Amino acid sequence: MDRQTGRDRQPRSACAAMALASMLALAPVMSVPAGAAEPRVPLPTPFSMAYYESWSELPGVSGPDTLLAATPAHVDVLAIGFAKPDLVYRGDLELDGTGIQVPVSGQVLAEAIAALKTRAPSIRVLISVGGSGYMTGWSLYDPAALARLVRDLGADGIDLDYEPADPGCQSAEARRGPTVVCLTDTTWTRLIAQTRAALPRPMMLAVPAWSTGAYGTGDFLNDRPPSPHTGSMLWLGRDREAAAAVDMVSIMAYAGGPAFQPERAFDAYRAIWDGPLALGLIVPPDPTGQTVPDMAGIRDLAARIAARDLAGIMIYGMLGTPPGGGDPSSPSGMMMLQAVCEGFGGETC
C-alpha cells in the first residue's frame, strides 16, 4: 500500500491514443451478477477501517493471543493484507501459495478471526488481495480460490486492491472529451464481475482507490498533483453495474506529496460515488513529504468526516510504529485508530 510520488504524465503518441480507443471500443463488457444488485452491505456511520499487516503478527501464538484478535473493538472493517491475485489455495487452511505472510498457521489465523468476531461481533473481516506488493498476477486472478480461502477462514469478504503500475489513462484534454479514460477501466469491470460471481452478497466487496483517481474532470479537472493515476477511478461514476457491486471505497489519501489535499480528494470521490467512503491515513512518516496529522489533527479530521454522509476513516496500517516508537505528534497505527474513535465521539475508545 505504500505509494510513490506521482510523476508528471508524458504525452502519448498518436499510435498509443489510437490503441487506447481501439481497446476500449472492442473490449467485451462483462455483466455484473444479478446478486450484485442487492443492497450494499450496511456499515455504521461514521465507520473506521484498518489494515492488518499479516507479516507483523507475533509468531508461535494461539488464535486468541494474536495481535489480530486484539484489534480494537471500535474498528468496523479490518482488511488482512495481502493475498496474491494468482494465489494457489486448495483448502484445509494451507496458506502456502496464498501470499499471506502471517507467521502462524492457517488454523491459527482462522481461530484469531473467530476470537475477534466473538469479542467484536459487528466487525467485518476482509481478505485484501493485491496491493503494491502483488501488482502482477492479475491476468491469472483466481476468485474461486480466493472465495474458498475467505470462507474457510471465516472472513466476511474481499478488499480488491488492484494497483496497476500504469493504468494507461488519457486525459480529457488529450481526448478532447469530457473525462479521463483508462485502459484499466475494463479490467476493473472484469475483476469486480469475477469477484462477485464467486462471492455474492452478503459477502462484502471493498475497493481501495488511488489518491488522485477521481481527479481530471469537472470541478476537479486541474487538481494537483499530476499523476499517471489521475482519473483512474472515474469508472465509479460511469460503470453503474460495477459500482453497484461495490460496498465500500477507501481512498489511499497518502504518499501524494506536499501539494496533495486529502479532503479535496474526498470531495472528488464523493462527486462520483454515493456509497460508504473512507479517507485513508498512513502511519508517519509519509514517504513523499505529505503531512500526516498528529493525534489532535486526526481527532479534528475524524469529527469533520463524521459530519458527512456514509463516511469513515481508514488507517494503514494498524500495527505500524513510526521510528522512535510513536508519540502524539507522530502516532502509531493503534494510536491513530484511538484518535479516530475519539473524533467520532465513541464511548469505548
UniProtKB/TrEMBL annotation:
<dbReference type="InterPro" id="IPR017853">
    <property type="entry name" value="GH"/>
</dbReference>
<feature type="domain" description="GH18">
    <location>
        <begin position="49"/>
        <end position="254"/>
    </location>
</feature>
<feature type="signal peptide">
    <location>
        <begin position="1"/>
        <end position="36"/>
    </location>
</feature>
<dbReference type="Pfam" id="PF00704">
    <property type="entry name" value="Glyco_hydro_18"/>
</dbReference>
<dbReference type="InterPro" id="IPR001223">
    <property type="entry name" value="Glyco_hydro18_cat"/>
</dbReference>
<protein>
    <recommendedName>
        <fullName>GH18 domain-containing protein</fullName>
    </recommendedName>
</protein>
<keyword id="KW-0732">Signal</keyword>
